[in-house]
Amino acid sequence: MHKQEEFLRLIDENKGILHKICSVYAPVLAEREDLFQEIIVQLWKAWPSFQGLSKFSTWMYRVALNTAIAGLRRKKTELVLMDNGQLPERWEEDDGRKEKLAVMYKAIRTLPEIDRAVVMLYLEDHSYEEMEDILGISQGALRVKMNRIREKLKKTIQTPAYGT
Amino acid sequence: MKDMWKQQEAVEPAEDIRPMLGKNSNLPIARMKRHLVAELVVVVVLYGLMIFYFFNSHSGRLLIVAWLYLLIGIAFCVYFFKKLRLLKSMDCMACEVKANLSKQVMTLEKYVRFYLLAGTALVPVILIFFYLVQYFYFPATPNMFFSLPSEKVSVARSVGELLLIVSVSTLIMYFVNRWYVKKLYGKYVNQLKDMLFQMEEDAGREQGL
């Protein structure tokens, strides 16, 4: 019971990150909720293996990204078409920023799965060393990836389809 | 972009995570495990019924068939437990993403090869066994399923026909199994390999290759 309470407390403190991961990987609300639940199930299942040797957030990112990236089978084409840039309902912003945020999420979702993880960790201000620890990609390769992703996102956001 | 990202304020409903802890996983590997257990239950029940039937019918003349089914049933159990063990070792969710992907790809390919081998190897075993059953237990009906050696059929011809039937059946079963396995797992394996490729592609550029 004590372990469950500790687990729930840690998850509650880091729920925001989990919701962001779900928003990056699932364009549709129903899929986001499914993904969120699946991540919680996987975190709970892997909880006995967390021995405090790494930061809780590093461990949590690994499980959550492994679930989102390699876990759920998705019909890619169908999901891209369904993506109308819907923001997570739980996030309230003023009108101007809300629209820009929606455009940003939509653009991120056009990236391949691994690139989405890289950009998300970058936006969360993780160092390349931390990103290497989570993803298993060398720091040099991450820098190359991030440069490429920046260029791609710039081009994507500037296209008329994104309303900019 | 970073500023926008950071300025998001998560106004989250007070969702209760506790009930989620007891839910079943919907990941492909978890579904494969559940299907495998269901398969095992079906096989045990069906084989159990057939073994019972052959043990108790035909005045015990077909006891050998009952023993065959029992042996195959035991082999199936070993086969299922080996598959289950492979599935259990397939992922490592707390590992680095790349390590987890590599493990999944490697183990899934092993799983598929094992499935293909076991499914195909069963065919010649069963066919040769039933040839022997017919030879020893039903010699008076030489053309029941196989052409047994007789006055009209030489040993060489009988064995030759058996080998032909076994080869053709095994080959057909191999291609059917291969098609079925590709249908079940091919797309998933390709998706995993694609993601592994995404992780490795820039490592080459980093090294100036």
Provide a short characterization of the protein structure:
Chain A has about 160 residues and is mainly alpha-helical. Helix content of chain A is about 70%, strand content about 0%.
Please explain how this structure is put together.
The complex is a heterodimer of chains A (164) and B (209). Chain A is 72% helix and 0% strand. Chain A has 164 residues and is mostly helical. About 4% of the residues of chain A have low confidence. Chain B starts with a helix and ends with a helix. In chain B, 15% of the residues are buried. In chain B, 73% of the residues lie in helices and 0% in strands. At the A-B interface, helix 1, helix 2, helix 3, helix 4 and helix 6 of A face helix 1, helix 4 and helix 5 of B.
Distinctive features:
heterodimer, A: 164 residues, mainly alpha, 9 helices, 0% strand, B: 209 residues, elongated
Mean pLDDT of chain A: 83
Biggest beta sheet attributes of chain B: none
Query: Assembly state here?
Result: heterodimer
Radius of gyration of chain B: 26 Å
Low-confidence stretches of chain A: 75-81
Q: Give the beta-strand count of chain A.
A: 0
- How far the N terminus sits from the C terminus of chain A, by CA atoms, comes to 51 Å
Largest sheet of chain A, in brief, is: none
| Helical stretch tally of chain A | 9
Radius of gyration of chain A: 16 Å
Terminal CA distance of chain B = 31 Å
What is the β-strand count of chain B? 0
Secondary structure category of chain A: mainly alpha
Number of helices of chain B: 5
Question: What does the secondary structure layout of this molecule look like, with pairings?
Answer:
The complex is a heterodimer of chains A (164) and B (209).
Chain A: H1 2-13, H2 15-25, H3 29-46, H4 56-71, H5 76-82, H6 95-109, H7 113-123, H8 128-135, H9 139-158
Chain B: H1 2-6, H2 28-56, H3 63-88, H4 97-137, H5 155-206
Helix pairs in contact in B: 2-3, 3-4, 4-5
